[in-house]
Design brief:
single chain, alpha/beta, Spore Coat Polysaccharide Biosynthesis Protein SpsA, Chain A, two-stranded antiparallel ribbon, 34% helix, 25% strand
């Protein structure tokens, strides 16, 4: 992407697609459901494949599904940037660290973009802005301002109403320099800490993660209702 001495900084995408998709109730993992004839994860990968500044892609999926992913997604759709399909772990955090460890000869200044395999409506512009922010900070988190009033509830009783202006809904991609996110994940694993997302691991030891404006269409497809909405988005885009 840009020169750092004699080496050109690389931009590497990790796409976790190892979820079991129980909420979808579809009889197969949600990442392989067809959206207008193409697997959801394939649509997601295609955005990174088309981004000229992305050098390498690593897909993370349950180990038994690796042959299916290779044949029915990577080879079928002709992706040339996918360097490996990595076995996932028990939790998403375990899957991401597996992906980080699978990148050969990564330099600390390389940028890693981590993006949910079931968010196919991300755009190249959003990815690029996240990468640009990650170069000059500890990380970038794509998010959108909360539209609804949020309540903090314990034991069925409202305890707090945070100011909506301070609340953002986290999305992906989240982007970091390799050295920063690898250190955060290794430290979390060593200490038995399970975070809510990758940014939370960097925040945990004082890292500065900056917000990048996302898009309300950049949804995570996890329920049948999400799939209906995704189909509507595709129809509107034609």
């Amino acid at each position: 992407m840009e020169s750092r001495g004699l080496r050109v900084m690389k931009v590497i995408a990790l796409i976790p697609a190892a979820g079991m998709g129980t909420r979808m109730q579809a009889g197969m993992n949600k990442q392989y459901l067809l959206l207008d004839g193409l697997p959801i994860v394939g649509r997601t990968i295609s955005v990174f494949e088309a981004a000229p500044f992305v050098d390498d892609i690593y897909v993370i999926t349950p180990e038994p599904e690796i042959p299916f992913c290779r044949e029915q997604v990577v080879e079928r759709m002709g992706f040339g940037k996918v360097r490996a399909i990595v076995p996932g772990g028990k939790e998403r955090q375990n899957s991401v660290i597996n992906g980080l460890r699978a990148i050969p000869d990564a330099a600390d200044d390389d940028v890693v973009i981590i993006h949910d395999g079931v968010r196919p409506f991300v755009t190249g512009d959003i990815i690029r802005r996240a990468v640009d922010v990650a170069v000059s900070s500890d990380g970038a988190l794509v998010a959108v301002p909360a539209k609804d009033t949020i309540k903090v509830v314990r034991d069925g009783i409202i305890r707090e109403t945070p100011q909506r202006e301070t609340l953002w809904q986290a999305q992906t991609p989240q982007a970091f320099r390799y050295g920063v996110i690898r250190k955060a994940h290794e430290r979390a694993e060593a200490e038995g800490f399970l975070g809510t997302d990758d940014a939370s691991l960097v925040e945990r030891f004082g890292g500065e993660v900056r917000v990048v404006m996302g898009d309300y269409r950049n949804i995570k497809i996890t329920t049948p209702e999400d799939l209906v909405l995704a189909e509507a988005f595709l129809k509107a885009m034609k």
